[in-house]
Amino acid sequence: MAAGFKIAEPLEYHRSFLKDNCRPDGRELSEFRTTTLNIGSISTANGSALVKVGNTTVICGIKAELTNPIVEAPGKGYIVPNLDLPPLCSSRFRPGPPGEQAQAASQFIADVIESSAVIQTEDLCIERGKLCWVLYCDMMCVDYDGNVLDACIIALLAALKNTQLPEVTINAESGKPEVNLEKRRSLHIQKHPVGASFCVFDNSILIVDPTAEEESLSTSHLTVVTDEEDRLCVVHKPGGTSLSGEKLQECISRATARQREIQKLVDKVIHSVKTAQ
Amino acid sequence: MGNVVQRQTRGALRFEVCGNMAGLELLSDQGYRLDGRKASELRKVQARMGVFAQADGSAYLEQGNTKALAVVYGPHEVRGLRSRIRHDRAVINCQYSMATFSTAERKRRPHGDRKSTEMSLHLKQTFEAAVMTQLYPRSQIDIYVKILQSDGGNYSVCVNAATLAVIDAGIPMRDYVCACTVGFVDETPLTDLCHAEESGGVSSLALALLPRGGQIALLQMDARLHQDHLESLIEAAMTACKGVSKVLDEVVRQHLQEVSVLSGE
Fold it and tell me: For chain B, which terminal residue's Cβ has fewer other Cβ atoms within 10 angstroms, N or C?
């Protein structure tokens, strides 16, 4: 009976829960789904992480390659993020070239990396003007159940913390780079940006960490990315119904609390990997 | 809220680095291979079914260091080209792709290139032989397979993972489809080749088998091999596939038990 009602009148179904200040999966309005993290499981990648936020699962793999730095920034390396939303993660995606959502999300992640300065790109430079590292961060969603942006940012952060780059020296005589696979160093992560996504129902009710159904029924979305110094890195509200100033402040404080939780989680997992080695 | 973590050895990368050195023995005098296995030993198979909530059926399978995810959607209405509708059976649509971080060198074109298209076609042909498509006329079954880490035997691992995913989706099949890649070195068939062995110039044969009747769904060999050796190679492949089918059967039964306990039967 409930299943029939859910399919026939999804909005009414959700409203009936929101009246009692809760949601169909039993969460409070401001509660995030259980987040689990697993790192370093892909040995062909320089760094990898798998994140599950509820049912939404994102795998991030980082491959480092040597390349010439771009002309405008000869003393810096660069990071190229890319999010893939393949048809296997949900039946809403069709096979073919990346759709709008994937491309927009990739650009969003690139903005987060740049504005939060998660890594000093000068660290990626090996020889000024000649050789630098480029980090290809490929994120792949394998199960789409809403809030893929948050999961991507966490996966990216964990994978960067897990990345090990080999030592590269330039041979003085031949001018060719020599890679020493034995000596590896981790990346120095300066800041820990973490995102929190919200959506608005019926122009007034604000819910945190929407599932795919809630996302499709909501009237507006908002994502806030903060770092550990309580600075805002990115605030993204793509259209939709308007939001008052106080609601926005609430979201920002909820996002800061989330940042603490996730940073603790990532540190704990990284630490347990180090002690396990 | 944080979690158990595993760290795999960097075995795959190591082989990539030294695999092209001359004199690397694929089969030592004592009968041991590069990773310490015997000639007819399979790599360790670990699998889980029902891993994703969105899909109708899903499975994750690891065979040694090769990891694959398979996801099945369907049977559902035919999407896209209406001309593909078959009035008497379901259409199977397969897509094979590799994650860009799955190989030692970053893969620039994970799907759409010739190799992926060929693999997708082979997977489709393999499953058309096994899935009972006559039961679902005018519909489509989507099988998506993604390789997360590649260490040889990609086709075989995909077939094994996809079999579990199809079973998880509840789509009837004639039999399990089990696959294995075998190679021929020093007059001995080596089962379940890893990447170093595949790229070491070994003549390799990929076989997909329906184990109960011993029926071959797909056989692919593209290397020089004397026809006298073909018999023993196929024999070795069939034995390996039957071994894999036992493991897959165990996984399915285990999963069913867990699910029935959870649903309280």
Answer: C
Q: Which residues of A touch B144 (CB under 8 A)?
A: 86-88
What are the residues whose beta carbons fall under 8 Å from the beta carbon of A261, sequence distance 6 or more? A32, B1
Q: Which residues contact B162 (CB under 8 A, 6 or more apart)?
A: B59, B70, B72, B94, B123, B127, B143, B145, B177
The residue of chain B nearest to residue A265, with distances taken between CA atoms, is: B2
pLDDT at B16: 37
**pLDDT tens profile A220-254:** 999 999 999 999 999 999 888 888 888 899 999 99
Please report which helix (H) or strand (E) contains residue A195, including its range: strand A194-201
Fold of A21-276: Ribosomal Protein S5; domain 2 (3.30.230)
In B, minimum Cα distance to A162 occurs at B7
Owning domain of residue B204: 44-262
ipTM metric: 0.87
User: Which residue from A210, A49, A87 is spatially nearest to B55, judged by alpha carbons?
Assistant: A87
CB contact under 8 A, A38 and B12: no
Provide the whole-model pTM: 0.88
Is A91–B5 a contact, with Cβ atoms under 8 angstroms apart?
A: no
Q: Tell me whether residue B200 is in a domain.
A: yes
In a domain, residue B13? The reply is: no
Q: What is the pLDDT of residues B2-53, one digit of tens each?
A: 333 333 333 333 333 333 344 567 788 888 888 888 888 999 999 999 999 8
Q: Do A44 and B103 touch (CB under 8 A)?
A: yes
Interface touch B5/A40, C-beta < 8 Å: yes
- Contact between A63 and B3 using a beta-carbon 8 Å cutoff: no
Query: CA of B136, closest CA in chain A: separation in Å?
Result: 19
Number of domains in chain B: 1
Judging contacts by C-beta atoms under 8 Å, the chain A residues touching residue B73 are: 87, 91
Q: Is B89 part of a structural domain of the chain?
A: yes
The domain limits of chain A are 21-276
